[in-house]
Amino acid sequence: MLVSVTGGTGFVGVHSVAEIVRRGHRVRMLVRDPAAAERVLATLAVDPAAVDLLASDVTEERDVRRAVAGADAVLHAASVYSFDSRRHAAMRATNAPAVCPPGRRPRRWRTPSAGCTAPAC
């Protein structure tokens, strides 16, 4: 199974990637800094051969389409959060809509058993 992941260098993302790889699946990560991704994955002994790194940003629709192409599942762990209302535009651009380009939803959506508070695409 191929899982496309955003936010894979953050705390939740990197631990999720490590578990996905441990279960024998392949991962494609959309990352801003591949070198930083390699460093953080190494801290959890993630096999680099199981992870493809695509250098870009979740706000780049063309690259998001490339990242999710052929994926069996998508884990969107990238986010911007701030109490500063001036960051509202960055939060809206980066969070849920960023991985849901118009007309390009994954074949099926899965939400954690605890529920999902992110807005649906």
Detail the topology: elements first, then pairings.
Layout: E1 2-6, H1 11-22, E2 26-31, H2 34-43, E3 51-55, H3 61-68, E4 73-76, H4 88-94
Parallel strand pairs: 1-2, 1-4, 2-3
Task: Describe what you observe in this structure.
The protein is of the alpha/beta class. The chain has helices at residues 11-22, 34-43, 61-68, 88-94, and strands at 2-6, 26-31, 51-55, 73-76. It has a single domain, classed as 3-Layer(aba) Sandwich (Rossmann fold), CATH 3.40.50.720. It is 31% helix and 17% strand. It has a 4-stranded parallel beta sheet with strand order 3-2-1-4, with helices on both faces. It is globular and about 40 Å long.
Properties at a glance:
single chain; 121 residues; alpha/beta; Rossmann fold; four-stranded parallel beta sheet; 31% helix; globular; disordered C terminus
What would a concise description of this structure say?
The protein is α/β, with parallel strands linked by helices and 121 residues long. The chain has helices at 11-22, 34-43, 61-68, 88-94; strands spanning 2-6, 26-31, 51-55, 73-76. Strand 2 (26-31), helix 2 and strand 3 form a beta-alpha-beta unit.
